[in-house]
Fold:
Amino acid sequence: MPWKVSLEATSFNVPQFPAEGVPEIAMAGRSNVGKSTLVNALLGAKLAHVGATPGKTRSVNFYAVKCATGASKRERSFRLVDLPGYGYASRSRTERREWSQLTSAYVEGRKSLILVCHLVDFRHGLLGNDRLLQDWLDQRRRPVMVLFTKADKITGSKRRGTLQQYVRDGLKSVDVPIVTSGEERCGIDELKRFIEARVDASMQEQAE
Structure:
């Protein structure tokens, strides 16, 4: 079943966050990692703005999603949450600090957050800021799933070996990282199934 999606809220401060209630999957990654492209491919709609300037996403964007999960194909509702990018951004230091504080407030205070998808450029692997994010999320006991982006920049024959090398180098991920490309739609269906399974499991736990 295709996802039914809509932009629910664009929040520049905590009071603008929508009320909690449904499971939330957050998307986090360095500026220019291809997050908006992946979000659009995942949602099946051009809702996230894709720009050439790193750091374009300045707000926390909440996308309402409905999908059918589990063997019964029961319709579930959840939110995909697009967090501001970190690392280099062509913005002032004050703005970058404000984005960091907004992200921290969301991750630390949001009870509905069930998973953080950590987007990492497949060409480079985990850089210093990526490992800092992983350690920070681990300290806050937030489950993390690594998603490698921009797989189209690496030839298909090298992708498996590259993934295996990154895993050997060490990373924090609740499952084997998924290699994606928003341009080629590589890994998108696999990622959707993974998210649906996490949402379904979360809602079943709540019902028990």
